[in-house]
Amino acid sequence: MKKVNQVVNGYDVVIVGGGIVGAATLYKLQQRYPDRTMLLIEKEAGLADHQTGNNSGVIHSGLYYPPGSSKAKNCVEGRRALVRFAQEYNIPHDVCGKVVVAVDEKELPMLEKIHNLGQQNEIEGLERINSDQLSEIEPHCKGIDALLVPCTGIIDYRAATKQMVDLALGQQPRSALRLGEEVTSFERAGNETVVRTNKTPDGFRTKHLVVCAGLQADRLARKDGVELKERVVGFRGDYYELTDQAKHKVRNLIYPVPNPDFPFLGVHFTRMTDGEVECGPNAVFTFKREGYGKMDFDMKDTLEALGYAGTWKLFFQNMAFGINEYRRAFSKRLFLKTLQRMIPDLTMEDIRPGRSGVRALLLSQDGDTRDDFRISYTDHNIHVLNAPSPAATAALAIGDYIADLAEERFTF
Length: 412
Hints:
Elements: E1 10-16, H1 20-32, E2 38-42, E3 58-59, H2 70-89, E4 93-94, E5 98-102, H3 108-120, E6 127-130, H4 131-137, E7 145-149, E8 153-155, H5 157-171, E9 176-179, E10 183-189, E11 192-197, E12 204-211, H6 217-223, E13 231-242, E14 253-256, E15 268-271, E16 277-280, E17 284-285, H7 299-306, H8 309-317, H9 319-329, H10 332-339, E18 351-363, E19 374-377, E20 381-386, H11 391-409
Helix pairs in contact: 1-5, 1-11, 2-11
């Protein structure tokens, strides 16, 4: 990947955040304005080191989201664009399809609901299948009914992110990537913003700023003077993976019918692009926004989250679920029991602990997860405030949307 290290005093656009949304924004803006100079700043030593590189690698279909919502529109458009991008640039991917499985009768109304949502969102090839058809697709999976979603896939999101950045930097030699630099402040200076970092205290001057900071989105927005009542709270998801002896039990992707009372999709099975098969994630409150270990702790993150009324309201609204998620986080036996709802012949020897990811939720004061994408702007700057799953799938569509906003609001 091309990396430009020289310090340039001024840029037309500075983008903060080297996940796939930041990368797609750089890529789309540079396409739209090939003669403009742009800088991408990422605090980690590599791109896609947080939500992008630690998710389940799924190319989502757009199945679950309210018709007309930003998530529904951008996921469907972004999925199609992402697959075309992966095909053109040889990004490891596979449009392998998934099944959403109802294991008992009480789940059938919700299965029907998401089927209807998928049809309204114009998801290609959706099909209700019975238990016999399910067994043909996933022989070890047991359910009474299912939904086949053939346009769902898997992808290497890290590779996609790097390719987007490489293409943007290749188009404009004066654009640059700064890795290992953490943004510390923003300061208005006339018609420009000075973006200061831990390694460049004098800062980078820019006409326009786009912040795609994920788990740090609310903090950086406030530093730029954005009035924001909500707060980002992190939830860790732990994965198990199938051992070599058990990988044959999952051919592609197997999802449960989501519980409408819980703000997560539930534990599922995902074949990855490298051939591994992951099981998970659960969803537990994390005491460190970027903490991937079960015992990770940060005092500032904890005090901010637990000092916020919205966090406690979310806890109380989902108390039983939260307790069960925490129990599963520390019990392989309970995790296995959840997995066995869909694949009954899994054993303790079939699964081993895998990695973890952290998801950013922008919580309102009443505990609402503000589940739709949310992008705010000022006269000069744009902030992506909320971009949880399926933002990775939707990244190219989000990048197009931000480029449209820039065309309307930026003056170069």
